[in-house]
Amino acid sequence: MRDQRPNSSREYQPKMRQNPTQMREDAGMSQYVFGKIPPQALSLEEAVLGALMIDREAMNIVSDLLTPEAFYTPAHQAIYQAIMRLHDQQHPVDLLTVTEELRKCGELERAGGSYYLVELTNRVASAANIEYHSRIIQQKHIQRQIIATGAKMVKDGYEDTIDCFAALQNAEQGLFAITQNTLSRSSTKVASLAFSTFKQIEQNALKARTGDGITGKSSGIEGIDALTGGWHDSDLVILAARPGMGKTGFALSVAINAAKCGIPVAFFSLEMANMQLVMRMMAMLGEVNGQKMRDGKLSDEDLMVLAGAAEQLHNLPIYLDDTPGISIPEMRAKCRRLKRQHDIQLVIVDYLQLMTLTPGGMENKNANREQEVSGISRALKGLAKELNVPVIALSQLSRAVETRGGAKRPQLSDLRDSGAVEQDADIVSFIYRPEYYGILEDEAGESLKGIAEIIFAKNRHGDTDTVKVKFEKQFTRFSTLESHPHFFASVVANAGHRQSGTPNNPASLGGDAAFPDSPPPYGGIKPASRNDKDIPF
Q1: Integer Cα distance of 412 and 60 in angstroms
Q2: 509 within a domain of the structure (yes/no)
Q3: What confidence score (pLDDT) does residue 367 get?
Q4: pTM of the shown model
């Protein structure tokens, strides 16, 4: 008699009667999927190695794609390393030379012996498909790296002795390292760049005709923008000075002016805390003496002005990070995240000598500080190219400036710790304040109080010159020098090709012209005018 039970009762029957053979196959497949058998392509590895030993031009095709670690077995890694050594020494690469190279290095047995090398050359007839085969090997290697990184992430996640934020940072660095080591940028034919480059030139010409003449990110200081055209994408800008010259103040002035133009800025401070930076920015915007803010000697009017400055800062896209001793991988990861989340267009680092090359300090314990700073400067230039944003890095100058006679103007040889900083940078500039050294008048007898010089000692894309700017010590603020008749004499002489008229740059910090469309904060209360008694010099 047929079973008259409802079909629903059968639907809830547990599946207990599966074929044992099928269960074993499913279990084996599950182990394979979850990485019990690492991804590999041994037959393709054999084909690639065989092709390299029968075609002398094949190595030029795969050298940018494969590393020894990309091969799965130690034997294949040893063979590829031997081929690489022969190729680097411009020696012939064939069955006999590879065998001799392995024998000379004591790795012939590890590679499988002479007979195995003969078998490899017999597996392929030509190197016609070597690039396609190499890309598959590279993909398998990336899969293995992802599995290894994921396994470490799981292990760290279960480990109670590891801080969860440190584990998160390690995971991000591990995945980023895979990207950096395997996905390199290929060459581009100039024909594909010609029209896009011309389009960029056309846009720059259009900007120049509109009146501002700035093709990059504005610094907010007319003389600097006239000389450089603004901060340009992918450029590394070094701003160096002796302690006390106002490096951080200049960097904050640049950050605020850029943010006023709607440009998101990432500011990494290795020297000062975030709250100290915000206090400085409030002093700049509100024109309140910074010393009075630290001492708490503020009037009711000062507090109202600072409240308005806080409101302005609240609306500016500036992102601060005061991680002490931040390393290059950490900064790169944070910049990539800020670029993805907030589309940052400018990165400022204060300052270069306080950074480390790796999270644990120097990668090579035998390396000196000069080698590490060289690596940091190269990494910052790479970061600027990767994110396609200007990177402004502050730097210290050596004590040689103080021992030099005369006006003590800095020069390129004064860059501290490394000459590689000068080579990597697109722009190298110095801050020089004659007043700091007791020089109160220039050769023409004009006062130098409250005047700073921004010396452009290197400019890869234009002229080198010196720009005189206004420096307000009580606010630690730099701005355009309008009253001085020679604030930019040489640049004006060199800029005859530019359109006449005053560039329409952002106004100096704190002025109402910088916010033409925004009402005065808190009932129109403006900072009180300052007299000479307020200036501590």
Answers
A1: 40
A2: yes
A3: 59
A4: 0.60
Q: Is 271 a catalytic residue?
A: yes
Rounded to whole angstroms, the Cα distance separating 537 from 528 reads: 19
Both structure tokens of 364: 């090579």
Q: In this structure, are 134 and 220 located in the same domain?
A: no
**Cβ distance 102 to 84 under 8 Å?**
no
Choose the catalytic residue: 271, 363, 422, 435. Answer: 271
CATH number, domain with residue 162: 1.10.860.10
Q: Give the bridge partners for 253, in sequence order.
A: none
Strands 391-396 and 451-459: unpaired
C-beta separation of 415 from 428 below 8 A: yes
Q: Both tokens of residue 177? A: 């390292």
Domain of residue 218: give its range. 214-534
Q: What is the pLDDT of residues 409-431, one digit of tens each?
A: 887 877 766 667 777 888 888 88
Within 10 angstroms of residue 130's Cβ, the number of other Cβ atoms is 23
- Report how far apart, in Å, the C-alpha atoms of 516 and of each of 445, 519, 522 are: 37, 8, 16
Tens digit of pLDDT for each residue in 68-106? Answer: 888 999 999 999 989 988 888 888 888 899 999 899 988
Angle at 121 between CA 115 and CA 125, to 5 degrees: 150
- Counted domains in the chain: 2
